[in-house]
Amino acid sequence: MASIEHVFVLGIDPGLTRCGFGAVRRTGNGRDFVAIAAGVIETEPSEELPVRLGILAKELDGLFEEVHPDVVVVERVFFQTNVRTAMSVAQASGLAIAAAAVRNIPVVQMTANEVKLALTGYGAATKEQVQAMVARQLGLSQPLKPADVADALALAIAHLTAAPVTAAIAKAVAR
Predict the structure, then answer these.
(1) Which sequence positions are flagged as catalytic?
(2) 170 within 8 A of 17, measured Cβ to Cβ
(3) What is the C-alpha separation between 58 and 17, in angstroms, rounded?
(4) How far apart, in whole angstroms, are the C-alpha atoms of residue 104 and residue 106?
(5) Residue 1 has what pLDDT?
(6) Helix (H) or strand (E) run with residue 109 in it
(7) Distance in angstroms (rounded) separating the CA atoms of residues 52 and 29
């Protein structure tokens, strides 16, 4: 695998109706980030669940073939008050993880709070604060829309931000 500074990361904000993705790498100076690809995979809520999952699986497969990430970062699913939403997010998350696994691509899962902490320094930051920081990190004049795209890019940036520290800690513990 490439050094941590040169890793190409694909962030996935899982969802069945809208699944955000964002592929990011560090620039030459190692302090700035550039988005290589970003968007949303959508499925029609009126379609049957197996059809929607099939569409999402096929689109994720095409995305992985197109961008060839070194690491995939998927938002970790937590139980929400809406069980139906949590189930569909978990299904989409599983498809993304499986798409990486069949390609032997390492998968990292991060909670929303971990992403917020890595990007803003505050684990309870608002969605708007995270979107603003993503725009700032990518040198954009305004936040990206829809939120699913910004969230996916936030996952990738958060991993690239946190990975050197995580690697240093692992190395120190191994001694």
Answers:
(1) 13, 75, 148
(2) no
(3) 14
(4) 6
(5) 42
(6) strand 107-110
(7) 41
Token pair of 54, please?
């099939």
Q: Which CATH architecture has domain 4-174?
A: 2-Layer Sandwich (3.30)
Q: End-to-end alpha-carbon separation of the chain, Å? A: 22
Q: List the strands of the sheet with 107-110, edge to edge.
A: 33-42, 18-26, 8-13, 71-75, 107-110
**What pTM does this model have?**
0.89
Query: pLDDT tens string for the chain (175 positions)?
Result: 444 555 799 999 999 999 999 999 987 766 689 999 999 999 999 999 999 999 999 999 999 999 999 999 999 987 666 777 788 899 999 999 999 999 999 999 999 999 999 998 888 899 899 999 999 999 888 888 889 999 999 999 999 988 666 666 666 677 7
Residue with the two structure tokens 């497969």: 61
Domain boundaries defined on the chain: 4-174
Q: Cα 56 from chain centroid?
A: 16
Provide Rg for the chain, Cα atoms.
16
d(C-alpha 97, C-alpha 95), whole Å = 6
The CA distance from 61 to 103, in Å, is 10
